[in-house]
Automatic annotation (TrEMBL):
It is an enzyme of class 6 (ligase). GO terms for molecular function: long-chain fatty acid-CoA ligase activity. Gene3D superfamilies: 3.30.300.30, N-terminal domain of ligase-like. This is Long-chain acyl-CoA synthetase. Pfam families: AMP-binding, AMP-binding_C. PROSITE patterns: AMP_BINDING. InterPro entries: AMP-bd_C, AMP-bd_C_sf, AMP-binding_CS, AMP-dep_synth/lig_dom, ANL_N_sf, ATP-dep_AMP-bd_enzyme. Its EC number is 6.2.1.3.
Amino acid sequence: MTEYNLAVLAEQAFDRLGDYESLFFEGRWLTSGEIHDRSARVAGGLRAHGVAPGDRVVVMMMNTPEVFVSYRAIWRAGAVVTPVIFLQTVPELRHILTDSGAKAAIISPELARLFLGAGEGLGITTFVVGEESFSALESGEPAGIEPRADDDLAALLYTGGTTGRAKGVMLGHRGLWESGRGLSAVARSMDTTRSLLPLPLSHAYGLIVTIGGLHADRRPVSVLQRWFDPAGWLALVAEHRLETSPVVPAMLQALLAQPLADHDLSSLRSFGSGGATLPPAVREKAEKVFGVTVLQGYGLTESSAVVSAETVEDHRPGSVGKPLPHAEVAILDPEGNVVEEGEICVRGPGVMLGYWHDPDLTARTVRDGWLHTGDLGRLDEDGFLYVVDRMKDLIIRGGFNVYPRDVEDVLLEHPAVQVAACVGRPDRERGEEVVAAVQLAPGQEATGAELVEFARSRLAKYKYPREVVVLDAVPLTSVGKIDRKSVRVLFTE
């Protein structure tokens, strides 16, 4: 049996760390032994219902302990975890269910109506957590571990829904194993064991955090939020003396807008930030206000979630850390030559097996073993990676390149601005015009005209936004990234 089988990894973690109170959720502690036993029984139940190695099993839940149980059970049965973020429309969800050819699904009761409507006629065996179907699933005998090869499919994650129909990213056992080990090494550098998990576990970032925990050499303790709620996050940190939390930048921005003095946050030591690039002003403020170290990482679903990350011993302002041991990074131009600034390309076992049912897109994205990320970046002389921006988000104004991040970082330096999004608006004379939308911090005031002047005093003439609109809330995706597609629509309409 391959050493990279994720079910074997979970078994080894339990053998190594033993039975202890490992997960707190909504007033109740679960032990590692309980999670281990339940996952073995659910694996047996899945097999009894005809789930075979390689079958896709959808997991569509809010964050609950049953997500941990289900992932491990599916891998134990040799099947493929197919996580689905619950913020889906019926057509989006039906596309995923049809395209994946899912054999079974484990869902939250709140999502049953949506799921059953989207899956009508597809013959997917469905188990609802908290109801008889799921109880029966975990009432049988524990199952052993199904052998899997290193490059057998472990997870099928759908991504890219904001830019078109979601495409399935195929991730293998070894890729996720290696990526999780890299993330675990970063966690060791923080020297923390008590964490708060607000991330959607159905996202690649949340998934790899759960796998990273299986590599831990000390007993990790996690407190799980059903969904991110900043006020609840602060209360949980204070109550359970939590030390660290993996977040996306939008979460940090929301936390900074809370009345922090009302909570004892002295136990906090670090944040791990990923999922989107962290604006320097937000990082600086978070470190100052919380008295912590913020460590940034970089990755994408197609790279098994993580490529590089800072550690406590090795970090540099503005960078996303050095590539982790499983990932090789090169900065390439369109002809494949190494350049100082260009496309970030990644090679190594974490690179996806390909796009599900799309060999042409796979061939365009992974060339000569290199995953072309679509991100612009550079490496410094010490090997630190810097992300400049998404290539597709580049604004070309009158022949000059404008990176939205440069504009957003400046706007976020204004004390009234909590979130900023910069996009290009079609312009007859200049090709594109630089415009931005902002969300103000609670209790703050600023006009669009004031913010234009603020940016103009700090940016080159061709860079500053000619229009800034103030919104109640800047549109975000389901995982907390700025939804630039929606922002563009605001300006084009």
